[in-house]
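Quick one:
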Amino acid sequence: FSVLFIVIFLYPRGMDGGDVKLAGLLGLLIGFPAVFVAFWVTVVVGGVVAVFLLVGRRRGRKDEIPYGPYMAVGAYVAILVGSDIWNWYSEFALGFGGTS
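Output:
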């Protein structure tokens, strides 16, 4: 919520307030650390789809692309396999050794 709130505060035309509210709700529902997995999946999936829309000329650089559906996909992935992804990331990148 706070990351997207900063984005909407600095660049109000870049994102809608509904996306920020949805991010806050998903953060409350999913919890830590799965919310980081959800945010990462959201950015990756949204970015890949945006690239395809731009390359395919279905959207232009100034056109709006809804972010909410990708946040829902991120939340869904985080609910299903978020702990596995977090444990893998903890072991691989951070060297913490995740909890099973």
